[in-house]
C-alpha cells in the first residue's frame, strides 16, 4: 500500500480522474450564529429549528431530537437547508468527530448552527458521489491532518473549500455511485440483521434474569428433591443481626423523600414455594448498615491522576464495572472517607442518571471509594448472596417498576438510601440462591460470547464499508 501522497499522485494521473478543489464543484455555507438568549428548546411560531454537530450520527441526520429554535430573521435564505445538502461538523472536542458528515435526504424546513457547515453540490458533481467521498478513509485522513494539534478542533470554511477531491466525469460518477450503493446496500442489510440479533440477545438476557428471580430458572421438582428437610427462606430472615463492625449508619434522605410503590397482588402471589418477600434493609448485618450513599463532602477538584481509586456513576454498568472511567484521590485525602470504603460483595447501585445500574464489587476493589452518586447495598451472605441481589435489581420486573416510580428529582431521576432499603426482594432458600447464581452466570457467559461475536462481525462490516469507499475513490471499484 502506498503512502497518501503516492495515492494522490496515482489518482492525479488516473485516466478520467482529476483533482479539484471542493469549492470548484460545491458551495460551502457557514452555519447560523445566534445568542444563547435567542434560542429555546421548544418549537414556537416564528422560530426555525437548528441542527447542531450532535445531530450528525453515523452518516445520518437526527431531525427530531435535541434541537434548538431561533428566530427566522437570524437565518438567511442561503442557510435554510435543502434536500441534497451535506451537513458537516466543523468543531468538536475530538479529532475523530470533527468533519463528520451526513446528507439531507428529505425536505425539511430548518437550518444549522455555527459549529456546522453545509456543502451544497453543484451540477458538476453527483450529490451521492460527494456524500460517499465525505465518508471515505481519504477524506477522514485529510480532515484529521487539518485538525491536528488543535485543542478544540475546528474546520474553517477555507479548509473545506480547499479540500482536493478526485473527480470523475459525470457518467463515471454515476457508475461509481451505483457500484457503491450496491455494495453498501448488502453490507447495510447484513449489519441490520446483526443489530436485530443483538436486540434479541438483549431480550433473551432479560428473560433469563426474570426467570431466575421468579423461580423458573431452577426447576421446582429439582428443588424439592434436595434433602428430606424442605428449606424455607423465612428461616434466613431469623438469622440474628450482627453489628460487630460497630458502625451505626443512618440511611439519609437525599433529593426529597419519595416512596417505593407497594407490590401488586399479582406480583405478591407470584412468589414460588419456599421463598419469602423481604426488604433490602433486612438483608444486611444490621438495618442501619444495609444501605449507604457515597460522601457529599468528596469534591471533584480533589481528584488526581493516581491514588485510591474512586468509583463514579459512569463506572457502574449493568453487571460490570468500566474501570477506565475511575477517579483517584490522594492517599491522605482518601483516609478522610474510611467509612465509605468498598468491600468485595458490595452491590453498587447508581442513584442518578440511569437509576438502578448495578454491579458487585470484586476482590481487587477492596478498599476503593465511591462518589455521592452511588449507593451500596451490603448483604449478610448468610441471608442473601450479593450476586443474587444484583440479579434481582436487574431482572425483577417489579424492581424496575419500583425504581422508576420512586425516582425523584425535577430535572433528572434520583434515588436515596431509604428508597433502596425499601425495595422488595423475592428471597429463595440459600441452597437455591447458590444454584440460581450459578445458572445465571452460565447463561450470561454464553450471552457474552455471542455478543462478542456479533460485535466483531459489526466491526468487520464497518471495515468492509471503508474498504469499498477506498477502492471507489482510487478508481478500482468499477
Oligomeric state of the chains present here: single chain
Quick one: CATH class of the largest domain? Alpha Beta
Q: Based on CA inertia axes, which overall geometry fits?
A: elongated
Q: Output the strand order for the largest sheet.
A: 2-11-7-9
Instruction: State the CATH superfamily name of the largest domain.
Output: DNA methylase specificity domains
**Class by helix and strand content?**
alpha+beta
CATH topology grouping of the largest domain: Adenine-n6-DNA-methyltransferase TaqI, Chain A, domain 2
Which radius of gyration do the C-alpha atoms yield? 29 Å
Distance between termini?
A: 19 Å
Total domain units: 3
Query: Uncertain regions: pLDDT < 50 for 5+ in a row?
Result: 4-14, 244-256
Fraction of residues in helices?
A: 25-40%
Main β sheet profile: 4 strands, antiparallel
Average pLDDT, to the nearest integer?
89
Quick structural summary:
This protein is α+β, with helices and mostly antiparallel strands and 478 residues long. The chain has 12 helices and 22 strands.
Structure explained in plain terms:
It is a single chain. The chain folds into three domains: 4-167, Alpha-Beta Complex (Adenine-n6-DNA-methyltransferase TaqI, Chain A, domain 2); 169-215 and 430-478; 232-428, Adenine-n6-DNA-methyltransferase TaqI, Chain A, domain 2 (Alpha-Beta Complex). The protein is 33% helix and 16% strand. It has helices spanning 4-13, 127-133, 137-147, 157-161, 170-213, 220-224, 265-269, 331-334, 386-395, 397-406, 417-421, 430-472, and strands at residues 18-21, 26-30, 47-51, 56-57, 60-61, 68-71, 86-89, 91-92, 101-103, 111-112, 116-121, 153-154, 164-167, 276-279, 291-293, 308-311, 327-329, 347-350, 358-360, 369-370, 374-377, 424-427. The strands form eight sheets. The chain has a four-stranded antiparallel sheet. The chain starts with a helix and ends in a 6-residue tail after the last helix.
